[in-house]
Batch of 4 targets.
Target 1
Amino acid sequence: MPRLASSTLLASLAWASLVGCQPIHREAPAEAGAQGEGPAARPAPVPAPVLAPSVEPWQWVHIEGPYAMRDLHEGQQRYELRVDEAADQLRVRKVLGTSADPDSPGLPQWVRAFESHFVDAATLIHREDRLFMLHHSQIASGCTLRALDPATGQVRWETQLQGLGPVAHSKYRNQVQMRVHGDRVIVYGWESQGAYIEVVDASTGQTIEHRLVPDALVGAIEAPPDDPPGWVPPRNPTEMLVMDEGLRVEIDWHAGSSGGQVRGRRGDELEWERPVWALGPLAHSEYLSHLEVEPIGDRVWIRGVESYGKYVEVLEPQTGDVVAWHRWVDPDTYAGLLEF
């Protein structure tokens, strides 16, 4: 299981040797356009459509420990994120022949440098021939998404996200997470003045969907569920809510395994059925799980406490669609949740 990388800088000699043998590139221009007439223009965002909740639900992973910088480990290679305060740069470096030990020197392959933000934060996800990188300030609005060539570090494209748009502020908090689904990069931004979901084409960097997220699905779920008064013996309890118009929401779960099954019925007719996402796919042997469900407003709230963490899942009762999913995890216990 990968572990969190230390934020301690590697030895300056290792960095110096790499920088000395390879030029550091700052904000490399985009690849040339189709006619070879110079750098291609940054793609303009398309108008944001009305996005149904079932398309991309709001998701957030609340983690314990340092948030700002996380190296990406893949077998015997890693991609490192380091801030060089003297040069005012954020550097991305690929190293081969390493272990999960962040102090293992390895063999440097390339380094790419970008202009630093004040109080930087950055995230990396590798998919096939793209290394996706989120880069933003933790105390100012906005975020940049880039796609790098994992073999060379060359910038394939760069997009300034729409986010919340221009925001005037003094004290501020800005956090951003992402996931890659097929040919889309899905970005979740949570700032002091609001939250948003932005879907970007993984091949071009063009924004194809964008919407703001109501605070009832974001800030109202900042606190994790309370621990249960005591773990119940493994069994298969069923809880039921009666919503309006005769709709019953039933949920089955087992105290010895993660998640459960939730369904909507109207009379004897099954309207919909789906699994509880809980903490996401995970393997376990001995395990404890506790689940509670209640109506809040016109939605169904599922709160769960499990051996590996806690979660809140909010559903539309008429369809079973998830509109919000929050998870609280210890990254050292379950690093598989930390793809953002």
Target 2
Amino acid sequence: MTWVWVSLLAYFLLAVSSVLDKALLKRRIPNPSVFSFYVSILGVVAFVLAPFGLKWIGFSLLSMSIFSGALFTYAMLFMFMAVRKNEVSRVTPLVISAIQIVTFLIAIIFSVEILNFQKIAGVALLFFGGFFISFDLPIKSLKIFSGFKFAVLGGFLFALAYSLFGYIYRDENAGFVSGFIWTRVGLLIGGASLLIVPSFRKEIFSTLRAGSKKKKKNRKGKKSTIFLFFVNKASSSIASVLMNYAFSIGSVAYVQAMASAQFVFVLLLASIASMRRPDIFEEKLYFWDWFQKIVSIGIIGVGVALVSL
């Protein structure tokens, strides 16, 4: 059962990336537009794979690749907006649940999948599980809904991007290497398009100008920000490779069902981090909060299983 351990490691690294997102957005990189811009620009690294199969894939697939990559950029933007506004252990489940539900609906619409009670029940459990893990009951303040719309919108855009990625990778005229590289070009273009929005352009350019004006006393903090940023991106990149490897040696349905493990890892990592930096990680450690989140994880796990099997 090697795929189980590979999947768990991948979801653990994704959880690490989610927690670092919170740290960077809260203290280090305060603007989601800046974070999304730099992540998108890093897509240029994908060209190191060019010798292994980059080719012209035709105008239609190229347009789809660029569009899906740009969608991914804006999905990140909305997810980072949500992470900045709320607890990471609330945002992550909402985003992932939205991805699972929308991806499932897209598969039904375009694959003519038959709806049955099992799959409908699975979708319902995913929705309610994502809700209950994201909000502490009873609801005492509307503040807990902070970032909710950004999380759902981000998940929706991620689902569209992932569905298009899958279509492109499976097309014989593209394949994984070419499809991956051209979709990263879409990320680059998506990142550049952020400069069209005046407020985003101001935020991005201000960070570039700030880099030349920093005094020596701030260099240590700047270096630590760069270090955290690249550890974050390295974690998510390795997780992506591991996830695809798990797909190749095990059942894709079962690997997807393991996604609930990421919620567990995020909850544990964020809770531990909140002990040292409660000003950044606003996680709660009360018994009822733990109980509710753990039960919700179980609900989500059952929902993913019902949808995938």
Target 3
Amino acid sequence: MQYEARKAKHKMAQPSTAVLDPVIDRQKPVATPSLFDEAVGIPHSPPSASTPRIGTQGWSVPGWQGLLYPTGLRPNRRLAIYARVFNSVEVNSTFYAIPSPQTVRGWYDDTPPGFKFALKAPRSITHEHRLRESGRELAEFLAVAELLGDKLGPILIQLPPGFGPAALPALSEFLRLLPVDSMQFCVEVRHPSLRSPGVRSLLHRRGVGMVTTNLLAEPGDIETLSGLAYLRLLGARRVPGTNSQPDPSTMTMEQFASETAMWTAGLRRAGENTGNNVYAFVSNDYYGPGILPAAQLKKHLGMPTQLRSGAFYTFFGYAPHGDAGPVQGQLL
């Protein structure tokens, strides 16, 4: 009932002769709004090296049909459409298995010049072996990653929640295996005790970046290390060693807008040094569908994003709070 009430209320409020494009804040006169226009995204030249890379953690999300993808679109065509809207993506599937060379070449062919892929290191390395005795698998993974050529972004090494100070010797030895002269790497810690000067110094000496997440950092406080700023906005996760389990989906619209503005300011500061590469990726459980907060980040950074006409209006009832309506549609 709440869903239908919100939907009816929103229909009454929509203009009859124009659709407000929430991302670029302008009205486009249309006779009949269509969700599936031929053109998706804004034509642009390839991003420069200093352009912030904004995207989501994955692109093959069935729930994005009607928002980003036409209903019935074949999964193997989603990346090409995604890459018209965002200039980077964090590939989560590599955490579960090393992709085939054919798959990686397909990713390259489906994306425009200047697009970047951030790849998540396999969990067999980070979570099962906990970085020990994993040189052979690391080499196999990096050999496949190299096939992305100039579209390869950072390699994300996500440490498990229980990876604490006692495991630092394994991290130190593992970092020696990384070919930092030819690839960029970053480490995400989940244990609060590892966000320390000593760990930062270790990563810096090895030429590796440190990931910032909304679980352990205040909005806007983004690490810049070894020429890399890498932000991950995640949904509810338990913080190891504490009773804390932040849940961003419970934010009000005002809190979401404020937090997004602060993260954007942090990304902007990180990019002030032209030697830094800046990345930000939003999970699909952070605050509604990941494409919507990611588009909001791009908007604040002066990188206009145009999704399908009326796409946001299809997302009735997803607001995290009661009768707040389509939260992202109102903000974006």
Target 4
Amino acid sequence: MMPFFRIQKFFAFMRIAGDPAASAGSFNSIYFWKTLLALALILCAGTGILLLFYNSGHETALALPIASMSVLCVLLSAICVWSIFSHIKRCNLTAVSTEGIVTELQRQINGLRCLCELSDISNDTGMTKDKILHCAATKISSGFCKPENTGTAITVYNTSYRTENFIKIPNSISAPLKIRGEVIGKIEVCFLNALPDNDFSSEKSFLAEIAGRLENTLERFDTLECLIRYQSELKEQHKALTEKNVALREIVEQIEFEKKKIKEDVAVNVEKLILPSLKKLMQKYGQKDRGYFDMIQKDLHALLSSFGVRLHGIEDNLAPREIEICDMIKNGLPTKEISEILDISPATVDRHRNNIRKKLGLVNNSVNLSTYLQSLA
């Protein structure tokens, strides 16, 4: 017979083995009684075997029933033990499945926390693009089941932002980064202690979600940079146009100054050179052609006025003879004197006067032709 304390210790072991939940404080009465039954059957079988051993030299009528009972007890105890160990196996499988569910839930919690932190970083207007990408590389690792064994690298426009534990290994996944359909970089994640045959399907889906959020952030920064660049270009163009306007204004002022100077030079030449020569001709040829000389003198004075410029605007409608007569009328010459100078009849001069009035729009108008032409001067 086993000592009592050994039987009690074995009973406690069988109770915990029969129901693993008993170690956590729960108690399964069915498997407890199964354990008791198995112990009782084993005890009965052992007792029968001992009785057969002690009576092996004596033939008794009870030998066969005792042997049969011992065998039956052994079979029943084996069934109880098989039932207990089957339950232990099921409990172990359940524990493994529960562990997988807990691991997946933990991964999803980490992923949601990671996405929230990335959103907060992206919406922080005080952070630059480089700082956001550096922080994102650190936060992405925390979104997976084992952040301490996960390395992350973000590459944008040939610039890399990575964690210290990132290395290129076969156990890696990646997702491209695109802006308006153009690939500008990628996100890479390596798993240092993962099994080689893992397909990382859930991790790839999670990484694609992160890539989509980073693409929105990068597109916002790209648009902002384009706006700043366009504003800078517009400022440069405005500055160049302002400088051109200043230069053009200076050129116009210079042209006006030169025009004024030329006009002054012409006036001086007329006063100092041409008019004295004209007076000498008048004195030499007498009074016969005085009217002609007076007209030339007045034309020289008109040269300094705006009459020629204004008459130029309507001279396309006037014949050369009509322009000549306009000049004489403006200088106050009467019809008779004009006819003598041009060696034509007074009727021809009147006909030219009428044609001039028609072309100048003075028909049925009381405006004097001489007055009108003088107003052009």
